[in-house]
Amino acid sequence: MDHSRGIDGVLEDLDGVIARAAEAGDACGYFPVLYRKVTAKLAQGLGTGFFDDEQRIERLSVLFAERYLEAAAARDAGEPPTNSWALVFAAGHRWRPLILQHLSGLPQKCSV
At what angle do helices 54-76 and 30-45 cross, to 10 degrees? Predict the structure, then answer.
C-alpha cells in the first residue's frame, strides 16, 4: 500500500472495494461502506482544528484502513487474509442477516 496517498487514497481504495462488492452482490460490502463513511467523516475534520493531532489521526486512519484493504485484496485473490480478518469474513456465513440485507435483496453471506 502507498502510505503517501493519505486518507484520500484510502477513500478511493474503499470506493473500489465497495464497487466490486456491489457488482458481485457480495454482502461483505456492508463493512467497507460503513468504514468509508467513518473515514470520510474523519477526513472532513482534518484541516479544521477539530483534532489536536491531525497527523496522528490521518496516520491511524490510513494504517487501519490499509490492514483491511490488504486483507480484502488477499481474499479477492483467493489468498488467505490475516487470521483476524479471516474471522471477520467468515462471520458473514454464520450470522443472521440484517433487516437491511433482506430489504436490499443482497446475498446474506460473504463470499470467501
Answer: 160
CA 100, 10, 60, 2 torsion-angle sign: positive
Residues 29 and 24: their CA atoms lie apart, in Å, by 9
Q: Which three cell numbers stand for residue 32?
A: 467497507
Residues 6+ apart with CB under 8 A from 5: 12, 62
110 assigned to some structural domain:
no
Domains: count for the chain = 1
What tens digit of pLDDT does each residue of 38-97 get? 999 999 999 999 999 999 999 999 999 999 999 999 988 999 999 988 887 877 666 565
DSSP-derived letter for residue 52 is S
The answer to whether residues 44 and 62 touch, using CB atoms and an 8 Å cutoff, is no
- Where does 25-98 have alpha helices with state H? 30-45, 54-76, 83-91
Asked if the structure places residue 109 within a domain, the reply is no
Amino acid making up residue 108: Q
Domain-embedded: residue 112: no
